[in-house]
Design goal:
The protein has 129 residues and is of the alpha+beta class. It contains 3 helices and 6 strands; from the N terminus they run βααββββαβ.
Length: 129
């Protein structure tokens, strides 16, 4: 089953790392990416640019609204993602827990829907657990 893992980070915390701390975290992350690829667990991963480069798009009553980032009233913002194959949610959580930046941020793990369901986007979600 496919899971998207959304890595939330505090930009100030990452910017506060020393050069050697950043190099260590980066190298550890790249090594874990390679390990997941070799195991066949990693489908894709991408880092995102700063939230300061983001824009939020909404269309309401036919009118476009664009809000420049940062737009969230939170310290942690989406810093990147990794898409993985895992046998179940427990395995996906284990994989996410080993992602190096989980020690300084958080990783949201969500199963991928195979298609848009006919009965509704989020109908009966609570019953699936």
């Amino acid at each position: 089953m496919k899971y998207i893992c959304l890595a939330y980070e505090e930009e100030a915390a990452l910017n506060g790392l020393t050069k050697s701390e950043w190099e260590s975290l980066r190298n550890e992350t790249l090594a874990y990416v390679e390990e997941l690829r070799n195991r066949g667990a990693l489908i894709s991963t991408e880092p995102l640019q700063s939230v300061h480069m983001a824009a939020t798009v909404r269309v309401r009553s036919g009118k476009l609204s664009v809000t420049d980032g940062p737009f969230a009233e939170t310290k942690e913002t989406l810093g990147g993602f990794f898409l993985i194959n895992a046998k179940d949610l427990n395995e996906a959580i284990h994989i996410a827990s080993q992602w190096p930046s989980a020690r300084i941020g958080s990783i949201e793990v969500r199963p991928i829907e195979h298609e848009l369901r006919e009965e509704g986007r989020y109908e009966a979600i609570g019953e699936q657990r």
